[in-house]
Design a protein that fits this description.
This protein is of the alpha+beta class. The chain is built from six helices and 14 strands.
Length: about 260
């Protein structure tokens, strides 16, 4: 008879850690992160579909959602469009567009960390009960996803889609983010190396835009579609709205140090 296995205190501790903090490796995924991913609405995409670098204008999608692009050499881009209802003040819904890009890392603990270029990110906020005008500002927030995995989505595979892959993400606190679906194996991204990315200042571009009234309808009036001007813009020397409003999914991850060094 084999002697019973006795775990030392250290072994027990390490086993507990492995259960609490599962390590996600590239080898465990059915395919790599590389490509462009979008949420279920299939309406938000990175690249020139979300931000026009020439006119410095965010472009509003038809529906809310999020999109990420990743290259195989460590660069990412992100676009988010969300609306937030206000049950106590139905005439005061909020709408938020966010865009940023930069580099990403895959630490040994299985997390995914996005490091944006501070000067290249943009945010447009419409909150008609606080601001009479939509607020356009530079924006950047480092994002940490505790875990990630790429799996085959059975439904999309049954439909015979060319890229039936789903990206599952867990935020820093372990809550799951909305799943993303791969649109293409080739990422869609604006140029990473820009003059703004080297010399920009995160507080320089804060502006307010005329035409805001309520929620996403106000957003449509201020942002405009491709080929239309953004609208009259006034300089506003106030604070950094990108800091005051960090409403996008997975924003402001306190506990980053604890996650990266468990």
């Amino acid at each position: 008879m084999n002697p019973p296995t006795v775990l030392t205190t250290l072994q027990t501790f390490l086993l507990t850690l492995s259960l609490l903090y599962p390590r996600q490796t590239t080898a465990a995924n059915i395919t790599s992160l590389t490509g462009v991913w979008t949420s279920k609405s299939w309406a938000v995409f990175t690249g020139h579909d979300s931000y026009n670098t020439v006119s410095d204008r965010l472009i509003e999608p038809k529906l809310t959602g999020s999109s990420y692009s990743f290259t195989d050499d460590g660069f990412f881009e992100e676009a988010i469009y969300i609306t937030i209802s206000n049950p106590t003040e139905p005439s005061c819904p909020k709408a938020l567009l966010q865009y940023q890009h930069g580099t990403y890392t895959l630490p040994p603990n299985g997390s995914l960390v996005l490091h944006p270029i501070a000067a290249d990110g943009r945010q447009l906020l419409s909150d008609p009960c606080i601001f009479k005008k939509a607020v356009y500002a530079k924006f950047n927030v480092t994002e940490v996803f505790k875990q990630w995995e790429v799996v085959e989505d059975e439904y999309r595979a049954l439909l015979g889609q060319a890229n039936p892959y789903r990206l599952n993400l867990w935020r820093w606190d372990g809550t799951s983010a909305n799943p993303l679906y791969r649109v293409d194996s080739k990422p869609r991204m604006n140029p990473i190396t820009s003059e703004a990315g080297v010399n920009g200042n995160a507080g320089e571009i804060k502006k307010t835009v005329h035409g805001s009234s309520t929620g996403s309808r106000a957003m449509k009036r201020t942002v405009g579609r491709e080929g239309k001007k953004m609208g009259e813009v006034d300089a506003d020397p106030g604070g950094n709205v990108g800091i005051q409003w960090a409403l996008g999914p997975g924003m402001l991850f306190v506990g980053v140090v604890g996650l990266l060094f468990p």
